[in-house]
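Annex B, item 7. Sequence and structure tokens for protein A, then protein B.
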Amino acid sequence: MRILGIDPGFAIVGYGVIDTASNRFTPIDCGVLTTASSMPFPKRLKSLYQSMQVILTKYKPDAVAMETLFFNTNVTTAIAVGHARGVLCLAVENENMPLFEYTPLQIKQAITGYGRADKLQMQQMVKMLLGLAAVPKPDDAADALAVALCHGQSYKLNQKINGV
């Protein structure tokens, strides 16, 4: 199964593509989609949508997993990221691909076994689980791979529970 993980953002969207078979995860690609702060807001959203369409067409994932929106104090940023998540979800829906969403706590729990893991712990586990020589850069790409891994592990667990 091919999984696309998405770490949503507005200026930077991380993406990570993995394949899973049996109990193995194989990294395919990871990177970021970016928009310039000098671009008008609607053009930034259009750019994210079109860039995500390219990723979906190129990798043809069987499932897409995205981190849910989490914000602490900056409501303005949260609204912008919410808009970005909307166009990313629309791109996935327009390709008729299943979309799964996970909270930051669920992702950390799936990757490290500890829901309050810090960024360094997460990055090291992504590196180890995918057999990478180095932690993927930038951080948004590593985070997207963590989202994909979370779905891969959750999917396998659900398969076992349901006897498939």
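Protein B:
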Amino acid sequence: MESGPDRRFATTLARGLSVLRAFRTSDGPLGNQELSERTGLPKSTVSRMTYTLSQLGFLDHLRSIEKYRLGPAALALGNIARVNLPFLEIANPIMQELANETGTLVAFTVRDQLSMLYAHCWRPRAAATIWLDVGRKIPMDKTASGLCFLASASERECRDLRQEFVTSGELTGEDFDGIVKTARHQLLSQGYTTSIGGWVETINAVAVPFRSHEASQAFVFNCGDLSNNLTEARITEEVGPLLRKRVRELEGMMGQDSMGGF
């Protein structure tokens, strides 16, 4: 989160945004101590951020318990961002049908720093499956969605991500390069990437990239479920090709070129 050598980077703004990013859909209100633990920022810094954000309407300050929750300005900003991605409305029936057909959780994921964020989910009707909520973050380097994002990223995006992973201490440069190479091979040869128990041992997933004219980076659609339902064989024979087909249909409806060859 620090600026490093780039003097254009506004560290104070980044710290404020990290406080907003700390909230999850499963949370109740959070106090400054909890936000400090989640962001890694000193509690005194968090206190200044939460005060400012509450004054601007991005946080609601619940004075009776001295905690905060996301405020109306944050909600408005999210709704504006969603309106700027019109393909989601077109994707709704396509992805809901896919969820029903496969009995898996279908999700639209976006990059959030070194993680992937569940931005929208389609749950199958009358079927038991894993329920990852909107707002859930998953590791970029261990999940089908993250591998798909890395495989479809531009060379410049990959260089920046490599530096961020190495600086954070999460991966060495060699490890990052190996992950990207494997992910790109999967995407080029199959049209999708997979994670077989890579993040959670009992969960398998498959992912396909989608790049919109309205955004500068790729988005990812994925299907995931418990491994006893979404087996590796079922991914290869059924769910992976179906997800790839549905994303290609969406690209065609949007008048966009396929990312199959990225």
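Comment on protein B: The CA atoms of residues 33 and 43 lie 6 Å apart.
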